[in-house]
Amino acid sequence: MSIKDLPADARPREKLLTRGPQALSDVELLAILLRTGMAGKNVFQLAQELLDMGGIAGLLQASPASLKTVKGLGPAKKAELLAVFEIARRALSQRLQERQAFHTPDAVKQYLQLQLAHKNHEVFAVLFMDSQNRLLAWEELFRGTLSQTSVYPREVVMRALHHQAAAVVLSHNHPSGSVQPSRADEALTQSLKASLALVDVRVLDHIIVGQGQALSMAEQGLM
């Protein structure tokens, strides 16, 4: 069934305008963005295929490459979806800039998932915070297999001083999907804590990101 075959009050756009966005299912919200399907695949089927990538959270972490695998997404639809994903990232970034990030730790995890979960290579990144734990900057600093030898504490310290940061949140992704910290992750965290303490910068957390999940080493008592 296509949208035009539905009763007027059951069509996603009309339903949103009369009852509010909270009344719509994930499929209906996505159908509004997509607008049309394709031959043999209506817009609801196309929306469901996208949601099968891991629900709304998984979709927000999708990359341009992963969207290429979905038949029926032309350049215009892909561009619109990617624009929405970037708006979500920037909205979370603004929240972290405007208020104390660790009053809402889940927002930090969500932000890092949007930034890192879709990457197919390992990335080490840092959130630089002011004295009120508000976001000053986000930077990807290293790529590749992470270890104490590939992540240089001196560079992390230099970037913290550049931003005049009072605290940092360390983060990296596990493309394998598991978010359990390795011995190397724990050793790296302690090495960076020691280096940053020399310039009075606190390490608040080290968050490990995988597809659809994130683990806080602070919450696990590993800091």
UniProtKB/TrEMBL annotation:
This is MPN domain-containing protein. GO terms for molecular function: metal ion binding; metallopeptidase activity. Keywords: Hydrolase, Metal-binding, Metalloprotease, Protease, Zinc. The keyword Magnesium does not apply. Residues 101-223 form the MPN domain. One of its GO terms (biological process) is proteolysis. Belongs to the UPF0758 family. The keyword Metal-binding applies. InterPro entries: MPN, RadC_JAB, RuvA_2-like, UPF0758, UPF0758_CS, UPF0758_N. PROSITE patterns: MPN, UPF0758. The lineage of its organism: Bacteria, Pseudomonadati, Pseudomonadota, Betaproteobacteria, Burkholderiales.
